[in-house]
Each structure stands twice: as structure tokens, then as C-alpha cells.
């Protein structure tokens, strides 16, 4: 899933770049190790912001074997409260007799204000662990089987685990991800049984530019209505050698239940 920093820009474009660099290393050694670091002006995952439309710093480690096996880990800051206003708790100030202190001038009761977060259980960062196996049938056709665990160590009851499969023919990729387990309540999204369908068209352009057109649909296994949604977008990337890869991206959710405003964001990723 995160092989090639899929979340920092359009999936297919940067994935192809990362796999190409791994293949170069594998030509010399059966194992290839790589690291990446990136920054985005908005962390968008499957059409939905994970940082309240704010920036994120991201990075990961990957290992791949010439057999097609790969594994890695990836992390990013997140903000599911979406920068929501903080709650303020007022506590009355009591005198030695247990009575509320009254201002002698205004006659108003005296309180102390304590600011608390909107949701103390909302996580501040994401840590993903993933593994998979990719193989090519020929120069035009390849497949990938993967599993990924989405962990939110400082959150509560929000971790979940997916298994997935995808196929790529020339410039077209289609795939499916299934939520095999989750900490959420049985009838909630991201608990078990959710299906995510996705596809992308990824083409190379002159002068080391890349173009990706992508879309997906989330079918949640929940009794709550109004949570399934589709999304789509476009990404243009530019490989800049030692300076990494830059991208300009557009994402759009197609359901008013979510924030369906168009999202424009920029990203940068550097692999080592």
C-alpha cells in the first residue's frame, strides 16, 4: 500500500517511480532497502482529508526481495478534529467557606476557564505496517497482493486491517481493498466487511512529468445510511532528480455527507 508513498501523491504515478528504483537495486542484490520522506499541504486519503486541510510530514521505510515480496512501514501526522474549536470548561472559584467568590465591584461570580480538546481520544498520528507480493505476467500485465494494518497508537478503538489485490495492464490499474478487522463497533465503518474499489490511469509525459487520473468508491458494511461515497481526482507530478518528486493534486468527494469542496494540494517526496 505505501510502497512508493501512495498517500503523498497519486497512487500510480509515484508507485511506478518507486518500483522502478527498487528494480534497479534488485539487479545488483536480491534485497533492496529504501527510505522516503515527504511533505504535503493536505493529507488526502481516498478523497477525504486526514489533517483538517492542514499540512503533514510523512515518511517510511521499505524492503523488497527479487522474488516480488515487499514490506514496510509509513507514518504521518493527522488531525481528525479538523481544527475544530476547543471546548472551554468553567469552574467556580470557592472561598474558604465553600461559597463562590463574588467580584466586589461587579457582583459577578468568579470562574476559572480550562481549555480542553474537542476529542481527547482523537489520534495525532498514523503508523502503517504493510506487506505484499507483486509479480509480472509479461511487460504489460502485473498483479499485486497486499495487506496493511492502519495503527493510531495515541487514539482509541480506531485501528483496522485491510487485505487487497490489484492488477495493472500497461497504464491502467484496478484494485479492491477489504476491511478484514477493525476496533470500531460492529455496525460502524472500518470495523469489518468494508469494500473499497479503485482505479487509475497513469501515463508518463515529456520532461519527466507524470499524469494520473484516479477514482474510488467506498462501500461500508454498516447499517448507518449516508456513509458510502465515491471520489476522484487528478495528479500531475514532476521528477526533479536529487530534489525528489513534486506533485500538484486535485481531489473531489462526490457526496454531500462529506466535505465535497474541491481539494487542491501540493506534495513532495524524496527517496533514499
UniProtKB/TrEMBL annotation:
Keywords from the named record: Signal
Signal peptide as annotated in the record: 1-27
Top-rank taxon: Bacteria
Entries under Pfam families matching the protein: Gcw_chp
Annotated InterPro entries: CHP02001
NCBIfam families on file: gcw_chp
Designated name of the protein: Porin
Organism from which the protein derives: Thiohalocapsa halophila
Amino acid at each position: 500500500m505505501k510502497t512508493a508513498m501512495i498517500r503523498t501523491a497519486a497512487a500510480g504515478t509515484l508507485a511506478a517511480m518507486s518500483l522502478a528504483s527498487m528494480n534497479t537495486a534488485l539487479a545488483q542484490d536480491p534485497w533492496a532497502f529504501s527510505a522516503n520522506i515527504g511533505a504535503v499541504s493536505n493529507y488526502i486519503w481516498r478523497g477525504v482529508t486526514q489533517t483538517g486541510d492542514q499540512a503533514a510530514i510523512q515518511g517510511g521505510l521499505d524492503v523488497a526481495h527479487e522474488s516480488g515480496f515487499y514490506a514496510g512501514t509509513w507514518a504521518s501526522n493527522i488531525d481528525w478534529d479538523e481544527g475544530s474549536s476547543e471546548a472551554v470548561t468553567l469552574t467556580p472559584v470557592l472561598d474558604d467557606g465553600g461559597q463562590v467568590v463574588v467580584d466586589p465591584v461587579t457582583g459577578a461570580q468568579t470562574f476559572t476557564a480550562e481549555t480542553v480538546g474537542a476529542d481527547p481520544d482523537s489520534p495525532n498520528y498514523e503508523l502503517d505496517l504493510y506487506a505484499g507480493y507483486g509479480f509480472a505476467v509479461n511487460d504489460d500485465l502485473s498483479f499485486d497482493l497486499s495487506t496493511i494494518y492502519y495503527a493510531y497508537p495515541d487514539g482509541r478503538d480506531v485501528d483496522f486491517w485491510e487485505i487487497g489485490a490489484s492488477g495493472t495492464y500497461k497504464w491502467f490499474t484496478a484494485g479492491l481493498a477489504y476491511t478484514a478487522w477493525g476496533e470500531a463497533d460492529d455496525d460502524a465503518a472500518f470495523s469489518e466487511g468494508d469494500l473499497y474499489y479503485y482505479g487509475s490511469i497513469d501515463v508518463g509525459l515529456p520532461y519527466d512529468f507524470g499524469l494520473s487520473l484516479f477514482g474510488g468508491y467506498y462501500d461500508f458494511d454498516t447499517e448507518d445510511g449516508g456513509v458510502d461515497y465515491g471520489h476522484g481526482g487528478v495528479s500531475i507530478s514532476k521528477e526533479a532528480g536529487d530534489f525528489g518528486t513534486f506533485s500538484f493534486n486535485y481531489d473531489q468527494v462526490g457526496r454531500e455527507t462529506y466535505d465535497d469542496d474541491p481539494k487542491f494540494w501540493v506534495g513532495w517526496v524524496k527517496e533514499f
